[in-house]
Amino acid sequence: MRATIVSRVTIMMAGVLLGAIPLAAAAQGRVQAVWTNRHVRFIYQGFTTYYSCGGLREEVQRMLEKLGARDLKVHEYGCVQGTGVETFPGVQVSMQVLVPAASAHGKAVGPTVSAHWQNVVLLAGNSSLQDQGNCELIEQFKETFLPLFTTRNVRYESTCVPHQISYGTHLSAEVLMAPASPVRGH
Predict the structure, then answer these.
(1) Is the pTM of this model over 0.85?
(2) Domain ranges of the chain
């Protein structure tokens, strides 16, 4: 009788442990995801910091890469000056981002991947004064580009005031990211 009770307890414990494996994966933030296409045109309007079209393209591309975009194409858009700062520089963006497979609704462009959540800081509140000069771009980026990604726990604080630069603007979010690509030998 005692052996039967021990066996039943062992079987029940094994079932509990096996049932916990999917919960452990979820706790680590694993999500089945697929890549989907995103396209956007963006025109920057700032009062404090001005960009050339190339400068805006580089800043936007850097932030999109940080958020995990792939097949990223960022082209200058609506630029009238040959060189130097523009009044309203713009970019046209084409990229792929991860979305949960359950919400893809047939828009997947590739196989399912086991994605994970990763905290990404686009602008830290204690970054250099020069970086804090990007506060208007960060605010507009948050409104235009961040909704194109799968995010959670978005944290945004702004001390941005037109025509002056001050410390304290912050933008970060947990973003659904693809698994790291294996490093290939030479």
Answers:
(1) no
(2) 31-177
Q: Which residue is listed with tokens 């771009």?
A: 137
CA atoms of 27 and 4, how far apart (whole Å): 34
Give residue 76's Cα distance to chain centre. 21
CA 141 – CA 168 distance, rounded (Å): 17
Structure tokens of 152?
């959670």
At 65, phi and psi to the nearest 5? Answer: -65, -40
∠ CA 118-124-126, rounded to 5°: 145
pLDDT of residue 5 exceeding 80, the answer is no
